[in-house]
Amino acid sequence: MAGSGLPSLGRVKVTDLAPSEGLPSDSYKLSVSTLSHSLAQYSAAIIQFPACDGALLRSALDSAHLYFHQRASYPAADVIHTNDSPEWCKTSGYCADPQLWQEAYDYRPGLTPNEPNSAMEFPPAGLPDVFALLGKAARDILDAISFYLNLRSSPFIEILDNVPLRNREISSSVLSVCCHARPSFQGAQHHNLGTQEDGQLVMYPDHEHQVDKSLISLIKSDKAGLHVRDFQGRWILVDGDLGPQEAIVYPGLALYQATAGYINPALHRTEVNSMQSSMFGRCSLAFKLMPKSMTSLSCSEMRAAGHGVEAQFQLPVPVDDFMQRSHPTDQLFNRQNIQCFNFPTAQDGSMKPLMRRRKTDQRSKPLPPSKRLRLEAQRVLKERVQEIADKKGIKLRFCNLKECENHVHMLDSPCANIRMEIGWPPGVPFVHPHDLPNKAKIGFLEAYEPGWTATHDMELSLTEPGQASQHSADCTCNSRIHSFISTLKCVLRSRYFLSSLISKCKH
């Protein structure tokens, strides 16, 4: 059982995390620092909403009490919930998990009907408003984490739902109205529950825990009971002193994958005590910001920002495959020794959004100039492809490299129309620029940067810090990088260059 002590989780106002144009304000940098430190130390943080939003959350929880109170005592077979289902992005309406003594009503815009099917059963009230409130907060939190990691603004926009949803689109993100241990719910007879000597009912033994496969999860409950494992492996109660307008936020597995393991997911479990005195059980609102099913989780943005990406994160992972496979939690936390989430403070007290890297950690070692230059070429190419697509009104959906090798020989492949409209060369797989082979990138450098050779590239990569000529070599490399980037951006304005570059890839 978790300890009773309450940790000092970071408290951040959601209004302070809203991004704005121009330089970041001191309140924004302080909020990002507080949020990041709390996520690193406790895998959770507390988000504070305005008072008017707190009233909306409270009324939604009250509506949840009434909804579950009028439900039948035992769920029908067709609403029993199963984890890792192929239909993970299509759950909607009431479902139950007797093994966990949990019931939920999933609200998913685009799929959940606005009108109830039965006149005798009404869904919880206010779900569209709560979905919009928590969804906006989750996106701001995701952008704040990206700011800390020194990524481009809104780097995960390609894997998130449109705002607002387009016609006939179904939301990947979901708002679940949950109820634990409702006294009138009889599914617990199949669950092995332990009873303490003082008569308190305890759920989830020490070896049982859960991990969300979301990017960001936001939880607002009416009673304490959510425990999260912290940086030191201790189970801590994170919602023991929440105010009426406060909620818990923690990262999920999808963010762990998309950030190459730099953001650890939260392992959590729910403990329900003294349920004899409660007639409704423990109700909560759980919003999960999910990636779209037809996309892939890639660490290209992390590489572009100069972060080290380990072998297990090198290849993009289709979201559908990621959601349906199991993830052993004992293999997740591979970055426990990294000092992270710290904004150094200058002598004058001002905050600087700089990342502290450990010199002793080889995985955080700065990339060689040649690698940085190839990443810049990749970034500009991606922008050029997107520019052409935007002008033609095409929504880009890149294929998996292996799958698209078969697509190029099919007339009715998923990417056939896109390749034809954008002018993609025949016979070349329609893949994201980060999937271009390194040989193709080196060939590109030799063709469009006078004097650049593979030998020169190798010499740059072999240059080690501490050599006598390091300073002069860095100056020369930086000069070449700035010169080449300027030339590259000019060349990429020609559409002919795009076709020429991609034609080189098939060789």
From TrEMBL:
It comes from Morella rubra. This is 2-oxoglutarate (2OG) and Fe(II)-dependent oxygenase superfamily protein. Residues 346-370 are annotated as: Disordered. It comes from the Eukaryota. The lineage of its organism: Eukaryota, Viridiplantae, Streptophyta, Embryophyta, Tracheophyta.
